[in-house]
């Protein structure tokens, strides 16, 4: 490991790192535009210049590789002056329209100007006029006046999607990002371009002009829309409750995880966030005939436990059925197994999931649920929910609103009518609502704590990024409450008061989760 | 359409492509061959070249727009490129260019209605010793004045 000196600090860094990476690894950020960790150095923006002792000129930190004994200065007067000059060049042709630019507040150009620029413009000439609303992709608008030609977007399309749909046209002052004729960028990863453009040149029509980034609260989460489990950031207006006709989430962004999704997420996951706020169940109700009564979860838990208890008492365990799905967390699937199968001897465990879609060769998987691998590893024996088996039951607890998909509504209705008590734990409204006795709203992944196991067997914990409002209950808590009411293994379950505690038990009992 | 390109052009392209380890490396010489046959590189030609070399059309477009010698639109029978760089300008290229425009009745970058002449300006033609100068298709004409321009145009008539 070569030893180098950064601003007089002796540091040992890994062989082969560039100065920029080495400095970053010890907490010294070096300003840059064109460098992006996903690509080889480009060396075109000149923002990363640093001083190396013994060399007459400033060098590019992004493309100089560390060498034993190098002495680097990242904040010397020469370096700071160079940064200012680079900014002056970039801003000479820049429209300075931050007040109407979506990127303002998270723009590298703006941030660096505040830090290293702060000069008065010497530019007296009229600026070049360029296209400000060029349609670059399905959701992408290019503002050619704001573009600093860092080519991150072009390299993303060359190296990541390998679709090569964009390039730099012309040369010199006429250079601009372009596409071939009107062959817009249209692939399942196009949304990443707006995220990696360091300035406001590429903006996303899905987000454009909807809010300002400084109003947003950023929370980490896991995308539950397929089994890849990409790491994401949800940007939301924290103060907005779900019940108002406003949305909470304005944007979903990729969060770096080199073991799962690198720096990217797919468009399906990026733009598919409407489900967080739309079509949600928000009232816990008990229906008797045409009458609907609102209920607290505690009351509902008592009624349901009573029914379960009497069936178990009469040794009619076989007339209880549980429908599960694989958007439940590891903890919830584990609890379902412990409470129903191991605790109460319920054998009829069914699985009803959303139908698969089409996977691509990169991140998006055909499986559109988040935790099928978790179900496998927990080892829950589940069967397909055939209507005949369902109709022979006395009590059915249905988790998820997916049972309605794939069966004819009238057949499902006939089957469920024969079941005496049906409770539905669902995050979203569906055709099932009208067929059950209890509707119990539950949170989505973004609103609860727990962990998911992705397609490659990676267990990823997450915490709630959004609050769960309304009178429902998280499934893990509902399962614990039922266990308590039913006095199943009291000592065992009373210790499991949180998803973290449940996970600890899971780790102890199932070697996979070790 | 690509089927319209002559078999001799295709043969020449094959020969050029064979000289390079990677097909894509033959992009510049192939563009020259196509331009010589077709007269310009329009989107259709870009698609054709991309397909022949196994490239995305955008890669071809980047190269075509970078180099000013690739013509993106058809030009007249005679393509006049007047030098507008330093030596020529010092020796009167400016007024001569005005004269050319006025005589042909077109502006820079335009083609006469009869499709005979296209006028453009170029940076240094590399013949400063002959300044001011002009290229007509592939022929150089130097030490220009109004009379010489009249004579050249007449000879082309
Ligand atoms: S559009 Fe953005 S990412 Fe692309 S070259 Fe311009 S500044 Fe860079
Ligand atoms: S690949 Fe899957 S997990 Fe990743 S963003 Fe897309 S849908 Fe979400
Ligand atoms: S980051 Fe080094 S030149 Fe752009
Ligand atoms: S300046 Fe005109 S040929 Fe050199």
Write a compact overview of the structure shown:
The complex is a heterodimer of chains A (514) and B (157). Helices cover 25% and strands 18% of the residues of chain A.
Molecular structure report:
The complex is a heterodimer of chains A (514) and B (157). Chain A has helices at 19-25, 77-92, 108-117, 152-159, 191-196, 267-271, 297-313, 330-343, 372-378, 387-391, 409-417, 475-485, 490-494, 499-509, and strands spanning 3-6, 9-12, 49-52, 59-60, 71-73, 134-137, 140-142, 166-169, 176-179, 202-204, 217-222, 231-236, 249-254, 285-288, 291-294, 320-324, 348-351, 395-399, 421-426, 438-441, 450-453, 459-462. Chain A is of the alpha+beta class. The longest helix of chain A has 17 residues, at 297-313. The radius of gyration of chain A is 28 Å and the shape is elongated. The mean pLDDT of chain A is 95. With 157 residues, chain B is an alpha+beta fold. Chain B has 7 helices and 4 strands, in the order ααααβααβββα. Chain B has a 4-stranded mixed beta sheet with strand order 2-1-3-4, with helices on one face. Classes of the chains: A alpha+beta (514), B alpha+beta (157). The complex binds iron/sulfur cluster (2 copies) and FE2/S2 (inorganic) cluster (2 copies). One FE2/S2 (inorganic) cluster is lined by residues 32-35, 43-48, 60, 62 of chain A.
Layout of strands and helices, then pairs:
The complex is a heterodimer of chains A (514) and B (157).
Chain A: E1 3-6, E2 9-12, H1 19-25, E3 49-52, E4 59-60, E5 71-73, H2 77-92, H3 108-117, E6 134-137, E7 140-142, H4 152-159, E8 166-169, E9 176-179, H5 191-196, E10 202-204, E11 217-222, E12 231-236, E13 249-254, H6 267-271, E14 285-288, E15 291-294, H7 297-313, E16 320-324, H8 330-343, E17 348-351, H9 372-378, H10 387-391, E18 395-399, H11 409-417, E19 421-426, E20 438-441, E21 450-453, E22 459-462, H12 475-485, H13 490-494, H14 499-509
Parallel strand pairs in A: 1-5, 16-17, 16-18, 18-19, 19-20
Antiparallel strand pairs in A: 1-2, 3-4, 3-5, 6-7, 7-10, 8-9, 11-12, 12-13, 14-15, 14-20, 21-22
Chain B: H1 7-18, H2 27-38, H3 43-53, H4 57-66, E1 78-83, H5 86-90, H6 93-104, E2 117-122, E3 134-136, E4 139-141, H7 146-156
Parallel strand pairs in B: 1-2
Antiparallel strand pairs in B: 1-3, 3-4
Helix pairs in contact in B: 1-2, 2-3, 3-4
One FE2/S2 (inorganic) cluster is lined by residues 32-35, 43-48, 60, 62 of chain A.
């Amino acid at each position: 490991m070569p030893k180098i000196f950064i601003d007089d600090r002796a540091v040992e860094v890994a062989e082969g790192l560039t100065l920029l990476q080495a400095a970053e690894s010890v907490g010294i950020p070096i300003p840059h535009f064109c460098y992006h960790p996903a690509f080889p150095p480009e060396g075109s923006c000149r923002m990363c210049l640093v001083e190396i002792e013994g060399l007459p000129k400033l060098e590019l930190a992004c493309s100089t590789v560390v060498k034993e004994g190098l002495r680097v200065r990242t904040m010397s007067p020469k370096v700071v002056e160079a940064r200012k000059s680079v900014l002056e060049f970039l801003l000479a042709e820049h429209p300075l329209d931050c007040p109407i630019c979506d990127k303002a507040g998270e723009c590298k150009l703006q941030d660096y100007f505040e830090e290293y620029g702060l000069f008065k413009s010497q530019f007296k000439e009229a600026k070049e006029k360029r296209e400000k609303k060029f349609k670059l992709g399905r959701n992408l608008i290019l503002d050619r006046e704001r573009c600093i030609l860092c080519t991150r977007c072009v390299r993303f399309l060359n190296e990541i999607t390998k679709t090569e749909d964009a390039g730099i046209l012309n040369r010199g002052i006429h250079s601009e990002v372009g596409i071939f004729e009107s062959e817009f960028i249209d692939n399942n990863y196009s949304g990443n371009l707006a995220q990696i453009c360091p300035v406001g040149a590429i903006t996303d029509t899905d987000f454009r002009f909807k809010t300002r980034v400084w109003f947003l609260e950023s929370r980490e989460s896991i995308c539950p829309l397929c089994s890849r489990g990409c790491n994401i950031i949800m940007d939301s207006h924290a103060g907005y409750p779900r019940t108002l006709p406003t949305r909470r989430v304005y944007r979903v962004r990729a969060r770096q995880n080199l073991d799962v999704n690198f720096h990217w997420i797919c468009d399906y996951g990026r733009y598919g966030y409407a489900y967080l706020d739309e079509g949600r169940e928000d009232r816990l109700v008990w229906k008797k005939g045409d009458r609907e009564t609102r209920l607290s979860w505690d009351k509902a838990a008592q009624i349901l436990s009573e029914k379960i208890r009497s069936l178990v008492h009469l040794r009619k365990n076989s007339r209880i059925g549980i429908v599960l799905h694989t958007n439940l967390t590891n903890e919830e699937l584990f609890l379902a197994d412990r409470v129903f199968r191991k605790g109460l001897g319920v054998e009829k465990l069914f699985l009803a999931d959303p139908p698969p879609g089409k996977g691509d060769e990169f991140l998006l998987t055909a499986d559109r649920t988040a935790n099928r691998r978790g179900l496998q590893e927990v080892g829950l024996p589940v069967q397909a929910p055939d209507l005949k088996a369902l109709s022979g039951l006395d009590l059915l607890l249905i988790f998820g609103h997916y049972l309605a998909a794939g069966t004819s509504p009238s057949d499902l209705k006939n089957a469920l009518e024969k079941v005496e008590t049906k409770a539905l734990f669902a995050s979203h409204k569906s055709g099932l609502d009208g067929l059950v006795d209890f509707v119990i709203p539950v949170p989505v992944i973004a609103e609860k704590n727990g962990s998911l196991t992705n397609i490659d067997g990676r267990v990823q914990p997450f915490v709630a990024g959004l609050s769960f409002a309304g009178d429902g209950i998280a499934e893990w808590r509902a399962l614990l409450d039922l266990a308590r009411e039913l006095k199943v293994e009291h000592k065992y379950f009373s210790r499991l008061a949180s998803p973290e505690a449940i996970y600890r038990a899971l780790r102890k009992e199932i070697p996979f989760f070790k | 359409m690509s089927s319209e390109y002559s078999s001799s052009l295709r043969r020449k392209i094959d020969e050029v492509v064979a000289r390079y380890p990677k097909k894509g490396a033959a992009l510049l010489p192939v563009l020259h061959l196509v331009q010589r046959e077709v007269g310009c590189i329009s989107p259709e030609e870009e698609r054709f070249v991309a397909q022949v070399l196994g490239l995305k059309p955008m890669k071809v477009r980047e190269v075509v727009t970078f180099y000013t010698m690739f013509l993106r639109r058809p030009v007249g029978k005679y393509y006049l490129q007047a030098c507008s760089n330093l030596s020529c300008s010092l020796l009167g290229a400016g007024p001569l260019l005005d004269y050319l425009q006025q005589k042909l009745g077109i502006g820079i970058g335009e083609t006469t209605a009869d499709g005979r002449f296209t006028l453009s300006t170029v940076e240094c033609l590399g013949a400063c010793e002959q300044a001011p100068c002009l290229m007509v298709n592939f022929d150089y004409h130097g030490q220009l004045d109004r009379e010489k321009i009249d004579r050249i145009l007449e000879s082309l008539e």
